[in-house]
Design goal:
- The chain is an all-alpha fold.
- It has one domain: Up-down Bundle (Na+/H+ antiporter like fold).
- It contains 17 helices and no strands.
- Helix 5 crosses helix 6.
- The longest helix is centred in the C-terminal third of the chain and has 29 residues.
- It is globular.
């Protein structure tokens, strides 16, 4: 890394941390500050290979921490009602993304990416706000958290699909079938040997030294991520499943406590790296129009998800509305899709710029709505 890159990286991190602090003080996610920091420095910083590696490390750790909150026990505890709401959520919102792609003349690959970007809500933003509120015991909050778990699981399937599609973005069932077969084998291995893997980790990580413990965990995460890559799957899928395998071990809390600082840094680098790819000068009236329609469609789609909860979970009208607008935020997953796969799309649209503005706008708008809901909880 050249001497000048240390200067750029230092200034970038200091300015972005200041922006993140500002957004946090305003009650928003720090992700917004990192994204804006990257956008501001787009014209001054070209990410090096070392910076790109840290960005990929951020993706791996993000999905690892998602998996760490995602055990088979939690899947079994979702219940049939939440499953139906999750299916309705996917069908409505993924389809909306496909329709928007067709409407604005995106190519086939970009249209599929747009389906995932529009569909997936931000688990990180929503969970953090709800955990800080007094709403965790409410019926609709349990439905929201159940839908987020369902979305995370679907996200892993989508990552496998996008990975198999990215090398040659032309729909070919003969080529896609082996790719899904690999994904099924990889996922099936973790599900079939779940208890044995958990017991192995319980024994393997039984060490007093935090240093050795941390190195052992990170080594396993990287090896499984490599195995996923070797099978032509996204490394993020490997990180997710190894995280879920560790979720039911007796070491879960220790893993989270020791790895969180590393995860915070790597995640910040990831969002900064994505922001650096966004050229604000490329944003024109067409981009603003697309983002505006995406926001309206996304809000309508999640409200439909909320009302499906009224049918499948027996919620009243107000509770259904709470489910809908609490699912508005988009964040880490939409950006992961854009950062990993947009480079392969060869499309005519500035999808990085579209995703950045879309995520920022929904993140800020939805935070106000969710805070309004959580204040109502506090008064009750």
């Amino acid at each position: 890394m050249a001497l000048g890159e240390f200067l750029y990286l230092g200034v970038l991190l200091v300015v972005s941390s200041g922006l993140a602090l500002l957004f946090r003080r305003m009650g928003h996610s720090t992700i917004a500050g990192y994204l804006i920091g990257g956008v501001v420095f787009h014209s001054f910083v070209t990410p090096s290979e070392a910076f790109d590696f840290l960005s990929y490390l951020g993706v791996v750790l993000l999905l690892f921490f998602v998996g760490l909150e995602f055990s088979l026990g939690r899947i079994k505890g979702l219940g049939r009602g939440v499953f139906y709401v999750g299916v309705a959520d996917f069908l409505v919102n993924f389809s909306l993304g496909l329709v928007l792609g067709w409407l604005f003349d995106f190519n086939a690959y970009e249209t599929l990416l747009l389906g995932g970007i529009v569909y997936i809500s931000s688990s990180a933003v929503i969970s953090k706000i709800l955990l800080e509120s007094d709403c965790m015991d409410r019926k609709e909050t349990k439905t929201i958290l159940g839908v987020l778990i369902f979305e995370d699981l679907v996200m892993v399937v989508l990552l496998a699909f996008f990975t198999s599609f990215s090398a040659n973005p032309v729909f070919d069932l003969a080529r896609l079938t082996p790719a899904f077969g690999k994904a099924a084998v990889f996922c099936g291995f973790f599900i079939l040997f779940y208890n044995r893997i958990r017991d192995l980790f319980d024994w393997m990580f039984l060490v007093e030294s935090d240093e050795i413990f941390l190195l052992s965990v990170m080594g396993v995460v990287f090896l499984v991520s490599f195995a996923a890559q070797a099978m032509d799957l996204s490394e993020a899928i490997g990180a997710f499943f190894i995280g879920s395998a560790m979720a039911d071990t007796k070491h879960q809390r220790r893993i989270k406590a020791l790895l969180k600082p590393v995860g915070y840094f790597a995640s910040a680098i990831f969002f900064l790296s994505f922001g650096l790819r966004v050229d604000i000068l490329e944003v024109g009236s067409q981009t603003i129009l697309i983002v505006g329609v995406m926001i309206l469609a996304s809000m309508a789609g999640k409200m439909m998800t909320g009302y499906s909860a009224r049918a499948f979970k027996g919620l009243n009208r107000e509770e259904a509305m709470h489910v809908g607008w609490t699912l508005f935020p988009r964040g880490e997953f939409s950006i992961i899709i854009a950062s990993i796969f947009v480079v392969e799309s060869h499309g005519r649209h500035n999808l990085n710029e579209i995703v950045a503005i879309y995520v920022l706008a929904l993140m800020v708008l939805s935070t106000f709505l969710i805070r309004r809901y959580t204040r109502k909880c506090a008064r009750k």
